[in-house]
Amino acid sequence: MDNKIISVQNISKKYEIGMVASGSFRETFTNAISLSNKKRSKSSKDEFWALKDISFDVNKGDVIGIIGRNGAGKSTLLKVISKITEPTNGRIVLNGRVASLLEVGTGFHPELTGRENIFLNGSILGMTRSEIRSKFNEIVNFSGVEKFLDTPVKRYSSGMYVRLAFAVAAHLEPEILVIDEVLSVGDVEFQKKCLGKMNEVAKGGRTVLFVSHNMGAVRTLCETVIVLNGGKVAFQGDVETGVNIYLGMANENMSEMGQVNFTMENAVGKEELKLLGIRLKDELGNIKGTFSTSEEITLEIDYYLTEKVVNMRLNVRVLTGDDQILFAGSSHSKEPHSKNKGYYTCITKFSKDLLNEGVYKIWLQAGSPGYKELLPEQIYLKFTTEKLTSSGTMRDSVLPGYIAPVLNWEIITK
C-alpha cells in the first residue's frame, strides 16, 4: 500500500529580479499590467531560481526538518507545498489537508476579531464549522489570548498573532502540518509548548514539515532532514549528518586557518578599542584551525587602545556549531584596574582532553564597568577538534557529547 502523503516532483521556482513575485493572484495580475506597460529584457541576469529541480517524497507520519542557510529556498519550498505559490516547473501531489504557519498572521483578516479569525482560518484549512466548534476551547486555551478574543487582531502583537495562528493550525487536525521559523517570534515558554504540541501531532500519525535555524529543536523533533543549498537538495537523510552538513555551510565564511587579522584601517571595535587579531596556537606555537582533542589550545587576542580604559575586560565564549554555549571566561580577574593607550595581547588556554570531536566557535566581546560595549560586533573564530589515536589516525567511533574528558579507571579484583 502506497504510504506517500507528499510527492515533490522536479520542482523549480523562478523569480524576476526587481519584481515582487510571490505567485499570488494579486501580485501576478499587478506584474502582468506592469509588464504590458513596460518592455523588460528577458536576459538570464534578470532571473533568479529560488528552487531548482527538487524531488523527494514524504510518507504519512514523517517528521522532517528542512534546514539551510538564509536564501537556500526553504520558505519558497514550503509556500509551493502549501499551494500559496505555483512552481515554475514540476508538480506537487498532496494526499491530505495542509495547515501552514509560514508568516505571522497568515490567513487572518486584520479587521476581524480573534474569535472570528479562528472560524475563518479553520474554514480556509477545509474544516467544517462543527469541527471548529469542537476544538474551539482547546485552541483558545492553548493560545493564551482569552482576554483579547473579541479584539480585532490588527491590535495583536506579533507574539499574540503567532500564538493564535499556531493554535488554530495545530488543533484542527490537518493531515500535514507545515511550520516555518515563525515560532521564533513567541517567548521561550510558548516555543516549548509549540514543540510539545508538534511532538504530539507527530506521534498521532500526522506529517510535519519543520523549517528552523534552531538545531536543538530540529534534533529533538525531527526523524530526518532535508538540507537545501542554493535552491537544491544538498542532503536528505538522518538528522545528525544533515545538521553537521548545514553547520559546515553556515560557518564556511569563518576563518578555518586558526586566525583572523585586521589592520588599523579596518579594525573592528569602538573608538577606544581596535581589535587587531585573534589566533589559536598549538603547544609548539603553530597557528592552526584543527587540533587533536589531546592538545592544549592557546587563544591570543591582539588589540589597541586609543585612550586609557578603566577596568578593561575581554569576555570569551566557546560555542557549538549551532550556538549552544559550552563555557565562558573573562579576563577581568587577571587585568589591572586600568589600561593605558597602547598595543596589547591577551592570552588564555583551553585544557587538553576537554572538547570532543566537532566544530566550535569562539565568540569575543570587550567591555568596561557598566558593561560599556567596546566591541559591539559579533566576532567569531571557527576551529575543529579531532580525536586521534597514538598512531595519528582518526578513530572509527565517536563518543557522544561535546565534552570528552579522559577518565581514569581502576579495576579492583575481589
Distance between the termini: 59 Å
Number of beta strands: 21
Shape: globular
**Biggest β-sheet: count, sense, barrel?**
6 strands, mixed
What is the CATH fold-level name of the largest domain? Rossmann fold
The CATH homologous superfamily of the largest domain is named P-loop containing nucleotide triphosphate hydrolases
Mean pLDDT: 80
Structural class: alpha+beta
Q: Strands across the major sheet, in which order?
A: 5-6-7-3-8-9
Please give the CATH architecture of the largest domain. 3-Layer(aba) Sandwich
Low-confidence stretches: 25-30, 38-44, 389-396
Tally of separate helices: 8
Percent of residues in helical segments? 10-25%
Task: Explain what this protein looks like in three dimensions.
The chain has 414 residues and is α+β, with helices and mostly antiparallel strands. It has two domains: 247 residues, P-loop containing nucleotide triphosphate hydrolases (Rossmann fold), CATH 3.40.50.300; 128 residues, abc- transporter (atp binding component) like domain (Coagulation Factor XIII, Chain A, domain 1, Distorted Sandwich). The protein is 23% helix and 33% strand. It contains eight helices and 21 strands. A six-stranded mixed beta sheet has the order 5-6-7-3-8-9, sandwiched between helices. Strands 12, 15, 16, 19, 20 and 21 form a six-stranded mixed beta sheet that branches. A hairpin with a 4-residue loop joins strand 15 and strand 16. Helix 3 crosses helix 4, helix 3 packs across helix 5 and helix 4 crosses helix 5. The longest helix is centred in the middle third of the chain and has 16 residues. It is globular. The relative contact order is 0.10. About 5% of the residues have low confidence.
